[in-house]
Amino acid sequence: MADNKTTLYQHGTLALLVPGLLDGTLKMADLLAHGDTGIGTGEGLDGELIILDGTPYQIDSNGRVNLVSANFMMPFANSHFADYTPLMHVDQITRPTLQRRITSKVASANTFYSLKITGTFTNMETRAVPKSGQPYQSLAKTAANQSHFIRETVTGTLLSYYSPQVFDGAAVAGFHSHFLADDHDFGGHILGFDQVTGDVSFQQFDTLEQHLPTTNTAYMGHDFTQDDILGDIHQAE
Ligand SMILES: [Zn+2]
Questions:
Q1: Ligand 1 centre and the CA of 111: distance in Å?
Q2: Long-range contacts of 218-222, Cβ-Cβ distance < 8 Å, separation of 24 or more
Q3: Considering the domain boundaries, does residue 124 fall inside one?
Q4: What residues contact residue 32 under an 8 Å CB cut-off, 6+ apart?
Q5: CA of residue 147 to ligand 1 center, whole Å
C-alpha cells in the first residue's frame, strides 16, 4: 500500500487527557506505521514527543532529548507521512505576523494541515511535563508540574498541526506545535517565541483517521458528561 499523504492519523483524543486517562494505549512502533512525522506525549504525560524523518524523540521534564524506543507507550499522538510543499521564506518576523501570513496563504481554516518550519528562533519557550504514575490526576493538575525551558537563539525544526474549530476537544482547535533543536539539546511543546527566520512548508490533509483506545477499560468506562473538557483543555494548552 502506498503511503497516504493526505491522511492525518490520531490516537486518543485531547479530551481523554482532561480527566487523567493517561494510560499508554499505543506503541511507538504502531504510531510510526501511520507516519514518519508527528507529535505526542508518553504514558502519564511523560514528556513531549516529536517525530522527524521517521525518528521519534522525547523531550523530558529535565530538558533532555532522548531517542524513543519502539515499545514506548502513548495516550495521545498524531502522525502522518511527510509530503510538504514550500510555502514561504520568512525573515525576522514575530509569531503573530507569522500566523497572519500563514492563514492568508493557506486555502482554508476548515481542514487539518501540518506546518514545518526550519530556521532560527529567538526567545523560544517550551515546556515538558514530568511522567506521573497511577492513580492519575487531571490534565490541569498533572500539567501544573511542567518544566519551562527558554533559549535566546536556537536553530531547529518546528512541527505543528492545525485543527479546525469544529474538532476542538478531539484535538486543540488551532495550532499544536512542538520543537526540536538541530543540536538535539533543546525542545518541547512550544509556548511561544519572539521572531523566526527560516523556511515554512505546508501539508494539507483531507482525512482524519481517529483511532480510539478500545482495549483500555478506564477509557471505555469513563463518563465524560461530568468533565469540563473544553475549559480544562484551554487552561492546560
Ligand atoms: Zn504538545
A1: 20
A2: 218/21, 218/23, 219/16, 219/21, 219/23, 219/25, 222/16, 222/19, 222/21
A3: yes
A4: 51, 54, 56, 70, 79
A5: 13
User: Residue 144 sits in which domain range?
Assistant: 7-236
Q: Establish if 180 belongs to a structural domain.
A: yes
Kindly report whether the peptide bond that precedes residue 130 is cis, defined as omega within 30 degrees of 0.
Answer: no
Q: Domain tally for the chain?
A: 1
Radius of gyration of the chain from Cα atoms?
Answer: 17
- CA–centroid distance, residue 49 to ligand 1 (Å): 8
In a domain, 2, yes or no: no
CB 208 within 8 A of CB 162: no
Ligand 1 centre from 77 Cα, in Å? Answer: 9
pLDDT tens for 127-157 read 999 999 999 999 989 988 999 999 999 999 9
The enclosing domain of 108 has a CATH number of 3.30.1330.80
Q: In angstroms, rounded to a whole number, what is the distance separating the alpha carbons of residues 124 and 177?
A: 12
For ligand 1, the distance from its centroid to the CA atom of residue 177, given in whole angstroms, is 6
* Model confidence, pTM: 0.96
- What is the pLDDT averaged over residues 149-176? 95
Beta partners for 147?
128
Instruction: Tell me the three state secondary structure of residue 210.
Output: strand
- The CA 1 to ligand 1 mean position distance, Å, reads 30
Query: Residue 52 Cα, ligand 1 centroid: separation in angstroms?
Result: 15
Q: For residue 222, tell me if it sits in a domain.
A: yes
Ligand 1: distance of its center to the CA of 93 in Å?
23
Ligand 1 centroid to Cα of residue 119, in Å, is: 20
Cell digits for 218? 478506564
